[in-house]
């Protein structure tokens, strides 16, 4: 099964694996590209836990005794580390966003390229609610919020109003149904606009920002002193959250001081400037174009 070429592969694993015999976690297994490279850097004593909430990803399991696959959202990171009797880990890697597999699988309803399929967009197919429910049930205010915050659309109010108007007279069930609603209000590049709309729905439906917050906070608890946190993000809100977490130890970026006025800094960035893909990587893999890598170690 083809998922996607792992983005910033060497750059991310270079920052992550500092102890060949350590314990590492890949919280976004996907096609296993990053996990395989981590295993390549580990010795016989090394160990890797790999999370993915989508069972399709588990069909790509690497045949290696050093890896343990976990069918779960990474927001339950701490729970499963404890379950596997691991006290602290040497590194946590997250490659956020949606995989090429999801976009290219029509039945998953992630892409606007397949108008005949049902709107789905669930990262975990076991979830009950789909994108159909979101489009059918959300208030105008909530639709404005997600299209503005997660899609960064300038005419989110217009789009939300159009959806409310159309769903009064007919159901919006398939990708094509939604496209027919969106088409009249598109501004600028059609493909870019549609990608932003679908991204906003996907992020909200799967609570991706909430899960990221949980994962970041729990990673700090389970990392050893000196342990690495490496995150590849694709959306400005994700990147801002990661940047603020590395800066202050919380996703709000709030500076915390001790009783003596000293700033408490649980993490320290290991790179001076955010790492982005080279032009060559972007030409080979268009999915990499918006990727940003940040890395830090625990103090």
Would you give an account of this structure?
- This protein is of the alpha/beta class and 299 residues long.
- It folds into two domains: 9-100 and 208-298, Rossmann fold, CATH 3.40.50; 128-205, Putative methyltransferase TM0872, insert domain (DNA polymerase, domain 1, Orthogonal Bundle).
- Helix content is 40%, strand content 15%.
- The chain has a seven-stranded mixed β-sheet with strand order 3-2-1-4-5-9-8, sandwiched between helices. A two-stranded antiparallel sheet has the order 6-7.
- Strand 2 (47-51), helix 3 and strand 3 form a beta-alpha-beta unit.
- Helix 7 runs antiparallel to helix 8.
- It is globular, with a radius of gyration of 20 Å.
- The relative contact order is 0.14.
Quick synopsis:
By secondary structure, this protein is α/β, with parallel strands linked by helices.
Describe the structure using short key phrases:
two-stranded antiparallel sheet, alpha/beta, 13 helices, Rossmann fold, 299 residues, 7-stranded mixed beta sheet, single chain, DNA polymerase, domain 1
């Amino acid at each position: 099964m083809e998922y996607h070429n792992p983005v910033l592969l060497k750059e991310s694993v270079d920052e992550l694996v500092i102890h060949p015999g350590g314990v590492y976690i890949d919280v976004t297994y996907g096609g296993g590209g990053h996990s395989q490279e981590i295993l390549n850097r580990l010795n016989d004593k090394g160990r890797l836990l790999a999370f993915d909430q989508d069972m399709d990803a588990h069909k790509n399991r690497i045949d290696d005794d050093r890896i343990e696959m976990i069918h779960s959202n990474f927001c339950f990171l701490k729970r499963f580390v404890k379950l596997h009797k691991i006290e602290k880990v040497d590194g946590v890697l997250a490659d956020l966003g949606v995989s090429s597999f999801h976009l290219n699988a029509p039945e998953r309803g992630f892409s606007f390229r397949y108008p005949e399929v049902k709107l789905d967009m669930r990262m975990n197919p076991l979830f009950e609610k789909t994108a159909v429910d979101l489009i059918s049930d959300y208030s105008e205010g909530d639709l404005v919020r997600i299209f503005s915050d997660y899609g960064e659309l300038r005419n989110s109010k217009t789009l939300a109003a159009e959806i409310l108007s159309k769903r009064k007279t007919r159901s919006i069930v398939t990708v094509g149904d939604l496209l027919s609603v969106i088409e009249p209000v598109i501004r600028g590049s059609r493909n870019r606009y549609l990608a932003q709309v679908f991204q906003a729905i996907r992020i909200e439906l799967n609570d991706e920002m909430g899960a990221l917050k949980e994962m970041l906070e729990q990673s700090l608890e389970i990392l050893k002193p000196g342990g690495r946190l490496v995150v590849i993000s694709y959306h400005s809100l994700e990147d801002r959250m990661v940047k603020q977490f590395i800066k202050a130890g919380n996703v709000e970026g709030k500076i915390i001081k001790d009783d003596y006025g000293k700033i408490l800094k649980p993490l320290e960035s290991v790179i001076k400037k955010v790492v982005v893909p080279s032009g060559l990587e972007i030409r080979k893999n268009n999915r990499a174009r918006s990727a940003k890598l940040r890395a830090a170690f625990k103090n």
